Amino acid sequence: MALNILITGGCGFLGARLARTLLAQGSLSLAGADAQPIGRIVLADRAPPPDDLQADARIAFVGGDLPALLAAGQLPVAGVQLVYHLAAAVSGECEADFDLGMRSNLDATRGLLEACRAAGHAPVFVFSSSVAVFGDTPEQPLPAVIEDTTLPTPQNSYGIQKFVGEQLVADFGRKGFVQARNVRLMTVSVRPGRPNGAASGFLSGMLREPLAGERAVCPVPPDTAVALASPARTVEGLIRAATASRAAWGARTAVNLPSLTTTVREMAAALERVAGPAATALIDWRPDPQVERIIASWPSRFRPARAEALGLRADASFEAILRDYVQENPGAVRLAIRD
Question: Closest Cα partner for 160 from 74, 75, 94, 72?
Fold first, then answer.
């Protein structure tokens, strides 16, 4: 029997990369079962798929606003065995527009879970949560290293909405409506394309734009520490969340994906090693107190024992991440690259 998959936010950068990876694999061992061929991947998003995905006969597209699609019953949830819920309003958007965040991140998540419940066949449900569920305050400081058992204490609307989403997924899993898999993604860098509204967006932009010969702004101090993961490692984690057996996955709480701990200064140094001083000269170090506050409240060091037990590993170095970006996106690079 062929395996059908739904990816919300499926035409965005991460959703499209996930779809391409799954199509290239051709089959998937869902929740530890025998591998099944992938029959169809439904991409739900506001924008249409990239040309290469549109050309694949295994891709179906459902266009529109996710809450509206759910309200109209236009998502084919009954016909899929695996749901990836990636669609979300990002951190900066949620701080600027509270109602947008609640509708896109909370209402849509519950609506999708209710659709799975109504379908009645308990699909595997992989929810992309975030490192933003952790936050630091003087009254309740974060530990130096985040463990799998560290209590989430989100300090912004996006983080709170993601944590509430985790709990909804866990409870629908407890009731047997879905097979719940909450995955906490690290900040993904380097993202191709144009900037988005995420507070962490500069962690790609300060590299992507200079490589393209354009100026970029870094709004935080150089010694700001961050936890990052490459696009490849992030997609690897999302796929492993779907393939792990119930016994291997373990408790219903979310899995923290592995991360590379680095600083913004070290990221700029890697850029200079890859593309020379002409690249770093294009970075404007311009403080933004709001962005700095959000980023400083997020943890930068993790001990992801559960993820490692699933066979997942962090990236080796940021320079390696950057060189992978250059290799994968040659059309977006205008500067000369050093060996």
Answer: 94
